[in-house]
Amino acid sequence: MARLDDDLRRWQEAGLLDADTAERIRSFEHAAASTAPPQPKTESTRPGAVEALLYLGVAVLVVGAIALTGQQWGDLRSWSRVAVLAVPAVLSVLAGLALKRSGEPSLERAGSVVWMVSVALVAGTVAVANSEYDFGDSAGLDGEQTTTLLLALFTLFVAAAFWVVSPRHPQVLALGGSTVFFAVAAGAWPDDFSAPLTGICMALLAAAGLVAAELGAFGPKDSASLVSAGLLATGSYVGGFDAPTWTQLIVLVVGGALVYLSVTRDSLAYMVIGVGAIFVGLITFIFRHFASDIGAPLALMLSGAIVIGGVLLMAQLRPLVRGNRTS
Q1: Among 56-70, 81-95, 139-153, 213-227, which range has the highest average pLDDT?
Q2: CB neighbourhood size of 307 (10 A)
Q3: Angle, helix 268-289 to helix 221-238, in steps of 10 degrees
Q4: Are 80 and 69 in contact, with CB atoms under 8 Å apart?
Q5: Is the CB of residue 95 less than 8 Å from the CB of residue 120?
Q6: What is the distance of C-alpha 233 from the center of its chain?
Q7: What span, in angstroms and rounded, lies between the C-alpha atoms of 143 and 136?
Q8: What would the mean pLDDT of 116-131 be, rounded to a whole number?
Q9: Is 19 exposed, middle or buried (0-12, 13-18, 19+ CB in 10 A)?
Q10: What is the model's pLDDT at position 127?
Q11: Are 52 and 107 in contact (CB under 8 A)?
């Protein structure tokens, strides 16, 4: 209110207001300020020095834990091996909680990053504990693959729990990494590793995440859509290995769908991932089936021609799609 008092004084001295009018304005503004609701806290987009130092501390802690594990692992007892990861995991969870309750936007962002690291530490702790104490045999589980799959599912659950509490970009990245872990564990569940099973699990989970992101149920939308689209394209590509020929074309369909989605949503990320999926899928398919007949140079030229044709077709369809959106 100091600025208001100064203005009222100047206006009085200039003869624009009399004393009674100035006092009524002052009383009105004081009353309005006392009853106004508190302004919502705005989050700064620029990281400060404290936040940067926190990131540095997290990186040093992780590197130190890795170095200690590599140097002393053979000399440690079972409980010590578990504690090497369990103690940092617990501390990181508590540190992230404290940072997120600080009320400072920069510290809250740092807490999200710490929780992202916590997911990896929790996964490592459970994996080491299982390796040392063989929980699978104690619980009567059939085979190491089943135990690994359950551990991956637990990691995915932990990552999802952190996201529910704090739906931020680092938690979305942690969910993406946990999805990859679970998909690989699912592919390793049979006696022989199954790339199609890995690809199917990754693609299905990613497709669910992409739909949820577009519906506004999974966010932040930027990172959620980017991670989901990337995993969808990757899963579709991996699912074509050691599988029937027609499954190798699924990545092209997925890439085309992402390109179409990029046009309808005006999303550069979808465009880059979709074109990349089509490019990699085409080259892989042509080299796998036609390179021996037409040679590598012609295979590359054919791939490039198809990509260029697809871009030209997309350029022709883009105005039509936008016209349908605005009509």
Answers
A1: 213-227
A2: 15
A3: 10
A4: no
A5: no
A6: 15
A7: 7
A8: 82
A9: exposed
A10: 79
A11: no
Cα separation of 88 and 64, whole Å?
Answer: 11
What is the spatial distance between Cα 308 and Cα 275, in angstroms, rounded to a whole number? 11
Structure tokens at 87: 């103690």
CA dist 219 and 167 (Å) reads: 6
Tokens of 115: 């929780």
- In whole angstroms, give the CA distance from residue 197 to residue 167: 29
State residue 231's pLDDT score: 92
Q: Would you say the pTM of this structure is higher than 0.90?
A: no
For residues 198 and 185, what is the distance between their CA atoms, to the nearest angstrom?
8
The CA dihedral of 284, 285, 286, 287, to the nearest 10 degrees, is: 50
Yes or no: say if 209 and 233 are a contact pair by the CB < 8 Å rule.
no
Q: How far apart are the first and last CA of the chain?
A: 50
Mean confidence (pLDDT) of the chain: 77
Residue 132 scores a pLDDT above 80? no
User: For residue 220, which of 207, 209, 231 has the smallest C-alpha distance?
Assistant: 209
DSSP sequence for 140-208: T-SSHHHHHHHHHHHHHHHHHHHHHH--SHHHHHHHHHHHHHHHHHHHTSSSS--HHHHHHHHHHHHHH
Given this model, what pLDDT does residue 280 score? 82
Assigned token pair, 109:
């962002």
Reported as a pLDDT band with limits 50, 70 and 90, residue 42 is: very low
Q: How confident is the model at residue 114 (pLDDT cuts 50, 70, 90)?
A: confident
